[in-house]
Design goal:
Blueprint: H1 2-30, H2 46-52, H3 55-88, H4 92-107, H5 110-127, H6 136-161, H7 165-172, H8 177-206, H9 209-214, H10 222-230, H11 237-278
Helix pairs in contact: 1-11, 2-11, 3-6, 3-8, 3-10, 4-6, 6-8, 7-8, 8-11
C-alpha cells in the first residue's frame, strides 16, 4: 500500500513538472538580458521595458481588454437570465433540450464555430449592403456566443442548490417578485455569477481561432498580434507579456477557487444545520 502511495506521488510530480516546466522556462527567460533561450546571461528587466515601449502590442492588449470586459459583462447578464429561465422550466425533456443546445458552443470545435460565424456575418452584411461585414461588433457577438454556456454552467447549479422556499418566504413577507429575485436569488447565485464572469473574461482574452475568423481590419487582439509576429520572430518581450498575463490569470483563478470553497463551506453548514434542526 505504501509503495502504491509513493508511485502515485511520483506520478503527480511528473505530471505537474510536465505541465509547469515550460511556464517556468518562459518566466525565467523573460528576465534574461540576452535573446538566447539556452544561455541565461544576467537578470534584467530589459524586455519588460521594451514591451511597454511597443505601442502596437499595447494597443492589441487594450483591444483585448475592451473586448474581454464587454463580452464578460454582456454574457454574464444574459447567461444569468438564461440560467434562471432554464431552472424555472417544468418539463424535464424541454430542460434537457435547452441544456444540450447551450452546451453546443462548448463542445463544438473552435474552427467550426469561427468559420460558421464568419459566414453568417458576411451573409447578413451583404444582405444589408454593408461595405465591411466584419468589425469589433462581430467579434464581440462571437465572444458572447462562446462565453454564454460557461456562465450558464456556473450559475445553474447554484440555482438548483438554492432552497425554493426562500423566494416564497420573501414574497410572503411583502416583497414583490422582482424585489424577491434581487434580494434572495441574486445573493444565492452570486458565487456562480462571479466564477462565470471570471471564466468569460479569461476565455475571451485567450481566444484566437474564433477571433481570427470574425475580426475586421484595424482591430487586432493580443493573440492575433502574437500570431502575426510568429511569421517573423517572436522577441523576448512576448515572454515578458506572457509572464504578466500568466500571473493575472493565476490571480483570477485563485479568487474563483476561494469563492467556490467559501460557497461549498456555507452549503455544508446549511446541510448540517438542517440535519440538526430535524433531530
Amino acid at each position: 500500500m505504501k509503495k502504491l502511495s509513493n508511485l502515485s506521488k511520483l506520478y503527480c510530480v511528473i505530471v505537474f513538472a510536465f505541465l509547469f516546466a515550460p511556464i517556468v522556462v518562459l518566466i525565467t527567460f523573460s528576465f534574461n538580458d540576452a535573446k538566447s533561450l539556452s544561455v541565461f546571461s544576467e537578470f534584467s528587466f530589459r524586455w519588460y521595458k521594451e514591451l511597454f515601449n511597443d505601442k502596437n502590442t499595447l494597443n492589441a492588449v487594450g483591444n483585448s481588454l475592451i473586448l474581454a470586459f464587454s463580452s464578460m459583462v454582456i454574457s454574464t447578464i444574459m447567461g444569468t437570465a438564461a440560467a434562471v429561465g432554464i431552472n424555472k422550466v417544468r418539463s424535464r425533456w424541454y430542460r434537457t433540450a435547452m441544456k444540450t443546445v447551450t452546451d453546443i458552443p462548448m463542445t463544438n470545435p473552435d474552427i467550426i464555430t469561427g468559420i460558421s460565424l464568419m459566414l453568417m456575418f458576411v451573409f447578413v452584411g451583404r444582405l444589408f449592403g454593408a461595405t465591411t461585414s466584419l468589425s469589433f461588433w462581430t467579434m464581440l457577438i462571437a465572444h458572447i456566443t462562446f462565453c454564454l454556456p460557461y456562465v450558464i454552467l456556473q450559475v445553474l447549479p447554484k440555482l438548483q442548490q438554492m432552497d425554493k422556499s426562500l423566494h416564497e418566504a420573501a414574497m410572503d413577507l411583502g416583497c414583490t417578485p422582482l424585489r424577491a429575485f434581487f434580494k434572495v436569488e441574486i445573493p444565492e447565485m452570486m458565487p456562480g455569477i462571479i466564477t462565470g464572469a471570471i471564466m468569460a473574461f479569461t476565455l475571451s482574452m485567450d481566444d484566437f481561432v474564433i477571433s481570427y475568423f470574425t475580426s475586421g481590419n484595424g482591430f487586432d487582439t493580443l493573440p492575433i498580434r502574437i500570431y502575426s509576429m510568429t511569421k517573423k520572430t517572436v522577441t523576448p518581450k512576448m515572454y515578458a507579456l506572457a509572464t504578466i498575463i500568466f500571473f493575472i490569470t493565476m490571480g483570477l483563478l485563485t479568487i474563483s477557487n476561494i469563492i467556490d470553497n467559501e460557497d461549498n463551506r456555507k452549503l455544508k453548514e446549511m446541510k448540517r444545520n438542517r440535519k440538526s434542526g430535524n433531530r
